[in-house]
């Protein structure tokens, strides 16, 4: 496992969906669906994404925007066009007064809009799962990130657009995989830009720290110490500890603890396994040990956290 796999595991917890939009002006959609991640791939025409707080972003054919779901926004043909449609959680579509539009604007297989041959066409892919595991990566992204067509050489947006209108056995799974690949490629490309990646992302490429991070990701239940992590990557304890802190911004044990507790939070929320089983899975010897660390980080015991989230 690595950071990107952790991101996918988290945001995919409650599934994903892909929809093709075809629209003629004037059109304006107020997006308040609370999805943690939404990819907007403009394939034809133009659009304007206007966050509730922040500058409007103009999108052209080939551009892809990643909205992190931290605030609502309007997607429209022009920043001056007032909203006509509201997208609610669960992708429920209504007028401003609440009249349902889900079927009124359906244009065929996974296609939605006001014109079958809309001058603006886009594919939207949204992930609706919230996860502690993915939070570290999501928090390193801006509210809205945009990759212009010239910024990367990816055929995935057009492939997703082409496949979205097809139907048949296995098509949903195929689209899910395409959406996952697009998300991974987007995040990897974004973080490779100067000044865009968090310290721990760059540290994954380090010959000593990178393997140590992967050991923690893949085997959280192992009784890791600074000494045995250093030994596993062929370094002295002191040298490894200094290098890790310099590149990641925190000590190896602090990073391991936050990773374990994020895994524990997701297990508590998504499964019915006992607190003891969760503790063993993430590397705590007893439920009490997990509870102490979990309460220190979250302000709640594992049992109270599980009860609050359900």
Query: Structural class of the helix and strand makeup?
Result: alpha+beta
Instruction: Specify the number of helices.
Output: 12
* Spatial gap, N to C terminus: 28 Å
Secondary-structure element order, N to C: HEEEEEEEEEEEEHEHHHHHHHHHH
Parts with pLDDT < 50 across at least 5 consecutive residues: none
Radius of gyration: 22 Å
* CATH hierarchy: architecture of the largest domain: Sandwich
What is the CATH homologous superfamily assignment of the largest domain? Jelly Rolls
Q: What do we call the CATH topology of the largest domain? A: Jelly Rolls
Quick tags:
2 domains; 310 residues; 41% helix; 21% strand; 7-stranded mixed sheet
What is this entry, summarized?
The chain has 310 residues and is of the alpha+beta class. It has helices spanning 3-11, 132-138, 156-164, 171-191, 199-203, 209-218, 226-232, 237-248, 252-270, 275-282, 287-298, 302-309; strands at 16-23, 28-31, 37-44, 46-51, 57-60, 64-67, 73-76, 85-88, 92-95, 106-108, 111-113, 120-127, 144-147. The strands form two sheets. It has a seven-stranded mixed beta sheet with strand order 10-11-1-12-3-6-13, covered by helices on one side. The chain has a six-stranded mixed beta sheet with strand order 5-4-7-2-8-9, with no helix packed on it.
């Amino acid at each position: 496992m690595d950071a990107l796999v952790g991101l996918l595991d988290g945001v995919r917890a409650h599934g994903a969906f892909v929809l093709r939009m075809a629209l003629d002006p004037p059109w304006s959609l107020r997006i308040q669906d609370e999805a943690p991640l939404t990819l907007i791939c403009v394939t034809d025409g133009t659009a304007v994404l206007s966050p509730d707080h922040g500058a409007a972003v103009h999108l052209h054919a080939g551009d892809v925007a990643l909205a992190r779901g931290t605030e609502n926004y309007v997607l429209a043909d022009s920043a001056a066009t007032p909203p006509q449609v509201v997208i609610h959680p669960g992708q429920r579509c209504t007028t401003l007064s609440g009249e349902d539009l889900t079927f009124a604007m359906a244009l065929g297989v996974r296609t939605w809009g006001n014109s079958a041959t809309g001058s603006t066409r886009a594919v939207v892919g949204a992930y609706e799962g919230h996860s502690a595991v993915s939070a570290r990566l999501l928090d390193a992204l801006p509210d809205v990130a945009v990759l212009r067509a010239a910024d990367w050489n990816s055929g995935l947006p057009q492939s997703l657009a082409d496949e979205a209108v097809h139907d048949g056995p296995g098509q949903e799974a195929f689209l899910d995989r395409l959406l996952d690949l697009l998300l991974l490629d987007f995040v990897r490309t974004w973080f490779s830009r100067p000044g865009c990646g968090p310290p721990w992302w760059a540290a994954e490429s380090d010959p000593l720290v990178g393997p140590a991070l992967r050991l923690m990701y893949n085997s959280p239940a192992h009784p890791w110490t600074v000494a045995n992590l250093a030994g596993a990557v062929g370094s002295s304890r002191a040298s490894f500890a200094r290098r890790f802190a310099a590149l990641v911004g925190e000590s190896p044990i602090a990073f391991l603890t936050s990773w374990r507790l994020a895994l524990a939070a997701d297990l508590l929320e998504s499964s019915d396994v006992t607190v003891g089983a969760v503790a063993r899975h993430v590397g705590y010897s007893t439920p009490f040990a997990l509870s102490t660390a979990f309460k220190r980080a979250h302000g709640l015991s594992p049992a109270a956290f599980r009860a609050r989230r359900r």
